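dumping the sequnces here before i forget
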Amino acid sequence: MDTVLSTMFYFWVSLFIVFLLIQRGLWIFSDVAKGTVSFMLEKAIGPGADLVEGRVGSGARSWIMQGTLWLILGSMFTFMSMWLSHDPDALHSLASWGYSANTHELSSAGVYATLYGSVSMLIIGSSFHIIPKLSGTELASETNANLVSFVWTLSVLIMVIGSQNNLILDLEIIPIGVALNTVALLAVIMNHLLTVANRTKNLALPGWLILIALLSNPVLSIVSIASGAVNDNVGQWMTYHLFGGTFFFLGVAGVALYSSSIVSGNPLWSKTLVGVTLFGSIFTINPFGDINGQMVIDVFGPLAESNVVSFTNEDMLSASFLMALVSIPILAFSSNMLVTMRGSDMFVDDPNSSGNAELNLGSWLIIPIAIGSLFIQTDAVSGTNELTGISNSLSMMSGWLVLVPLSLGAALSLYPELVGRHLLSQTRARWGFWMMAGGAMFGISITMIADFMDMALAELLIEDPSALSEELRKVGSVMFYGVVIGSILHSLNMVSGMFRGDLISKKSVTSSSISVESYSLVSPTTVRRILASGADLDTEVIPTGENDEKGSATKL
Amino acid sequence: MSINTTDSVEGFLQGEKEPSGSWIFIALGVSISLSFLLLYSILYPGQDLPVISDLVPVFSGVFDSGIWFFILGTMIGVFAILGRLLLEATSE
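..and the predicted 3d for all of it:
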């Protein structure tokens, strides 16, 4: 059996066993396991538990706030890497401090800060709110969730430092950060499993998406090491894409699908499509991201050998086939999101619909970016390598125009319920959205045009770089700075909203965006709220009388 | 524009609420200024845009690239968030 199919087979079997164990429990050991995990989450951390608060929602809040702050660093590193691609000596003055910046290392720091720092923290933060809600219980340990967020942040910081200088005192830094990250992730998973074990109702499908996403991370690591995939060039590529398709895509899909219902007030459109998203993501290869497995080599450190990617015919056939199938889960996810949010044209003006714009953006753009990524990966897998020049730009697009908007949109939509207040300013939220969306879309697109120009020049064997291409890269990087400003605006809005945002009213949370024929007016309200509930100009508003007279028993 | 709440000083009126369309003019202004910046290199070929070390000679050899405008801007933003956090936490 070839590397692609064998790695995927072991991964599927392992995930199936884990799923069965969650569903059926550990037989007579279930109660012992619950007690042990509960002890490990609360008592075993000793005085560390006193450092943080354990109020309901504090864990999710802590993860989401730190995830948003990582967004600033992630976008800043990416911006600097784009700038240095046309002006390599821009930061030469930092050499006097012993730091020599280059575009490749800064790009790598941007990837770690964005994916591990921001997207992962926003997914996990949202999951700490979503899983208990869907389980009909409270989170097993808020204190542990809160404390572990700081361990995760520390691990990302180590990875970012490692991306600049991976060898300090003869120690590889990135694997140390990854090891610490895995410890934090295991604590998160234990917390979720204990919460699900105490559930009072069946877990809805978005909850399963999130759980499988979190579990896939350690399962895939073990499978890759055990099967030897981390040492094989194709195995490294596979591990990278399986990781992106399960941990990141499934995680983002889970929180986004839940939030689409929250922001629109509509029920999630199709359970079948959520199921297709879940199984499709596990059984296919997600094409988002790099065309090589370099990140896997960095992450696994001494366990992985550096190899040049070279596919055999069998591997090429299996990989191309499984990548082509990814259109099924992606279309299922996108259509489910967009139909669930139908009619919700409130955008970001309505305080009850924070995150709506980001969720819409990610749901629309995931399809064209997935198709583009499919072309790039197929080109790389087949060894043609004609589109390698634009792979980096497209990889950035999948991060900044799909994963970040969807995870940030989900976090913003849950923010009022977590904090008890709305964002400080909807105008600032609107600005933040436009700056981030416009900056990422125009900045990366213009950079991609420059990539195309360089590819054309290289094909014509012209060695001198084009002046116009350099100018375009300059404009692209300046445009991308909008993402940095947008991140700062969002962070500032969320931090200020925690203290001075308008208090949420319980009535306003559950209005549907589907068009209604009649609207019962029971108390004075605004036209905006009536429209937000799905009413249009033809909707009949029916005043329902109320009086304060004392009632009497109903005659049967 | 909402003018239900206004400041009035001897006949001078100023609405307190911001009209929703005003941002269009700000965005237009930013776009035009960016276009002029792009024109700069065409109008003055060979001359780069001024950087911080050109404006403040004491930073000569340090802030001698345009990227520092952006890095300083980000630092102001980050410090604004930290300042807001400290201010809000200690205001009670």
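Residues 50-92 of chain B form one domain.
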